[in-house]
Amino acid sequence: MVMMTGSLAVRGTVVWLTPQQGGRVSGPPDPDYDYDYTATAYLPPRTADDGQAGLALRRFAPGAWRTPAEGILVPAKGNRAQQVIPGCIVVITEGVRPVGLLTVEEVEVLAPDGTPVPAAAPTFDAVVEAAPLAAEPPYRHSTAAARWTSTHASDDTPSQTAGV
Question: Which terminus of the chain faces fewer neighbouring Cβ atoms within 10 Å, N or C?
Answer without folding.
Answer: C
